[in-house]
From TrEMBL:
<feature type="domain" description="ARMET N-terminal">
    <location>
        <begin position="15"/>
        <end position="110"/>
    </location>
</feature>
<dbReference type="GO" id="GO:0005615">
    <property type="term" value="C:extracellular space"/>
</dbReference>
<dbReference type="GO" id="GO:0005783">
    <property type="term" value="C:endoplasmic reticulum"/>
</dbReference>
<feature type="domain" description="ARMET C-terminal">
    <location>
        <begin position="114"/>
        <end position="156"/>
    </location>
</feature>
<comment type="similarity">
    <text>Belongs to the ARMET family.</text>
</comment>
<protein>
    <recommendedName>
        <fullName>Mesencephalic astrocyte-derived neurotrophic factor homolog</fullName>
    </recommendedName>
</protein>
<keyword id="KW-1015">Disulfide bond</keyword>
<keyword id="KW-0732">Signal</keyword>
<dbReference type="Pfam" id="PF20145">
    <property type="entry name" value="ARMET_N"/>
</dbReference>
<dbReference type="Pfam" id="PF10208">
    <property type="entry name" value="ARMET_C"/>
</dbReference>
<dbReference type="GO" id="GO:0031175">
    <property type="term" value="P:neuron projection development"/>
</dbReference>
<dbReference type="InterPro" id="IPR019345">
    <property type="entry name" value="ARMET_C"/>
</dbReference>
<dbReference type="GO" id="GO:0071542">
    <property type="term" value="P:dopaminergic neuron differentiation"/>
</dbReference>
<dbReference type="InterPro" id="IPR036361">
    <property type="entry name" value="SAP_dom_sf"/>
</dbReference>
<dbReference type="InterPro" id="IPR045332">
    <property type="entry name" value="ARMET_N"/>
</dbReference>
<keyword id="KW-0964">Secreted</keyword>
<dbReference type="InterPro" id="IPR045333">
    <property type="entry name" value="ARMET-like"/>
</dbReference>
Amino acid sequence: FCFLPQFVFSLKEGDCEVCVKAVEKLQNRLTDAEKSDASLIEKQFIEMCKSSKGKENKFCYYLGGLEDSATKTLKELTTPMTYGLPALKICERLNKRDSQICELREEKKIDITKVDLKKLRVRDLKKVLSDWEETCDGCIEKAEFIRRIEELKPKYIKEDL
């Protein structure tokens, strides 16, 4: 016989940050009367998802809060909410259902004024340009991306003199 221990992982503060933020945002939107009715919670969640962007939008997609969502697992969110469970516990349960939910991470903003561009990865340099809604046509090497960012820096970063 081979015995495999079953581990129970509980989330810590900072884990599953997109889920926790979205669930807390939803909880804050609800009135006391809505908090005990799963169908009203579901309506509020779908309403919240209509204006969501970025990682929160992806979270809504995973749970079925968007029209184009592949699955609808809203009951996994709404039912525990009616019990008054905290956001972290709800996300823990959602994570057991679909591990993608806790793989969502908030993207860190890069402060160009305080960072050495030469130490950033090309992916991060591309992200800076996309945040500025700029492109670097024909750029292949890191030095070319850095040069483009340096050209655009005065346009996007106002330094105090």
